[in-house]
């Protein structure tokens, strides 16, 4: 019997030792895990705290399982051993356990908060250092490019002086083209913020410098056709009454630029940014401005004929007394734009957002308004004869404007020779 009790006692002690070893192992494992926000140099102390917490919790749980445990006896030593007193002792014990767990969680929260602040401080220092390195790199590159640009412009100036009014040599034009190609776009800091889109301020500077030189029109046309000026940074520039016909300015930025009277005929302006630009009396005939950002532009008395403006943002623009005949505005945004007294013959506004746009006194003869959003659009005194619409056009939108149009026009079913059916607006007799 004594042997059995001895073996049982040894077994219990062995289990306790194994339990303690297991708790210590788990604690150290927790310490050396890749815990977020914990500095690797603090692994030892994280493991130490984890071991301590687990040991205390293990002891509390072990004692709580025994009705005659030391914790229960400690709480009930001054009380009679009744069931009620034992229950009170249990409640006090669990409250103590809860308080311990709360303090442990509070300590862990503080550690995580402290480490987060430290990590943020390191991140700010790293970002600051990165900005300094980028600015240094930009400075070195700009210094080199300024020197090369000076050499190219000096060469052009010398040729002009040697042959006033004459054409530039093909070698010089080729050198300008090669130099422009080397001026790759990149994101850089503008007004203390990193630009969203890559741009090349050097290409913009090169173009501005060339416009100020006395280059003959023939040579300038060759430069425009062979030199890549895409991604040029021309923000806030003054380029009034300059012939830029046939130029490649794709993805360039001309925000808030003064482009009064400029000639962009047959040019490539896809994805260009012209937000807030002034284009009064400008011409953009047969020009590619697909997906362009041209909100808040002023193009009064300008020409935008047979131009592809698919997907362009022209919201809040002013096109008064302008000519936009034959242009494509499919999926474009013309919200709140003013197109009063404007020529819009054969213009395609299919699936175009014309919400709150003003088309008063404009001529839309032969155009398209299929699936266009014309909520609160003004058509006062406008000509809509022969405009292609859907069969239920009058029923899609309600209001005073549509009521007046319905009084003036009717929808006519027209079947072409190919058998396709289209619907047009026709003036009522």
Plain-language structure description:
The protein is mainly alpha-helical. The protein has a domain at 2-75 and 87-134. It is 43% helix and 5% strand. It is built from 9 helices and 5 strands. It has helices spanning 2-31, 43-64, 70-76, 83-162, 170-182, 201-211, 217-226, 393-396, 400-408; strands at residues 189-190, 193-194, 388-389, 409-415, 421-427. It has a 3-stranded antiparallel sheet with strand order 3-5-4. α1 (2-31) runs antiparallel to α2 (43-64), α3 (70-76) packs across α4 and α4 (83-162) runs parallel beside α6 (201-211). The protein is flat and about 105 Å long. The mean pLDDT is 81.
Sequence of secondary-structure elements: HHHHHEEHHEHHEE
Number of helices: 9
Rg calc: 39 Å
State mean pLDDT (0 to 100 scale): 81
Total strand count, please?
5
Strand order of the largest sheet: 3-5-4
Shape: flat
**Low-confidence spans:** none
Helix content: 40-55%
Q: How far do the termini sit from each other?
A: 122 Å
In what range is the share of β-strand residues? Answer: under 5%
SSE class: mainly alpha
For the largest beta-sheet, the strand count, sense and barrel status come to: 3 strands, antiparallel
Oligomer: single chain
Write the layout of secondary structure elements.
Layout: H1 2-31, H2 43-64, H3 70-76, H4 83-162, H5 170-182, E1 189-190, E2 193-194, H6 201-211, H7 217-226, E3 388-389, H8 393-396, H9 400-408, E4 409-415, E5 421-427
Helix pairs in contact: 1-2, 2-4, 3-4, 4-5, 4-6, 5-7
